[in-house]
Amino acid sequence: MSARELRALPDPLPAALVGASSVLLTQVPDIMSEKTVTTPGGIPAADFIENVDNHLESTKSNHEQALAKLQDLYSKYKFIESRLSQSKANLKGKIPEIKKTLEALKFLKTKSTGDEECLTDFELSPTILAKAKLKKTDTVCLWLGANVMMEFSFDEAENLLSGNLGTASTNLERIQEQLLFLRDQITTTEVNMARVYNHEVRLRKSGKLPAKAE
To answer: Which ranges of the sequence are coiled-coil (predicted)?
Structure first.
């Protein structure tokens, strides 16, 4: 029979990335939310700048410095978005694989109760298939990744695959939730940058722009 390869499923946000993103984003505290709230994936929330004058005064910065911090935050949000999108794409490719493997396993399980041989296609390579006859069997071999293959009973294999499918589906939902939240923060940051820039332009036109900080 053809055993499909099952590799380790990626987390919604790898532990190393969670730590890295937390460090990266907390390096710009002046424009992060100070509210203690639970956010998807622990991604820090960005506060909307309602009053640019108050924001500049509270952060003791000028327009150029405020824009630089916002741009830095924006770049880090985009970095996390890129990594999450990659994990989402990986999961979307893995879930159909697991479902197909489960279907093949259930087919073999039904055939194992009879004495007749089963004709199937044996995968020699991704593009080459050969015909094979399967005699009655009660075990299957599954690729676990890292060039490791293990033999399981039908029930053990079904439990393993069902667990992997459930984990992958849950992780995919979490990633989608994190991406939706992250895109809101990106939009907020883009609006904040526009507000600070436009505020500077208005002050320059009116001649009220304070001298740049040394």
So the answer is: 49-76
Q: Which residue has the tokens 């069902």?
A: 162
Q: What is the pLDDT of residue 175?
A: 95
Three-state DSSP state, 206: helix
Say how far residue 214 (Cα) sits from the centre of its chain: 42
pLDDT at 49 over 80: yes
Q: Which two tokens stand for residue 1?
A: 């029979």
Q: Supply the CATH classification number for the domain 17-206.
A: 1.10.287.370
CA proximity to 46, closest of 181, 188, 191:
188
Q: What tens digit of pLDDT does each residue of 100-138 get?
A: 999 988 888 887 777 777 778 877 888 888 988 877 778
118 is written with which tokens? Answer: 């089963």
Q: What is the 3-state secondary structure (H, E, C) of 160-187?
A: HHHHHHHHHHHHHHHHHHHHHHHHHHHH
pLDDT of residue 32: 55
Residue type, 204: R
State residue 152's pLDDT score. Answer: 92
- Domain boundaries, given as residue ranges, for the chain: 17-206
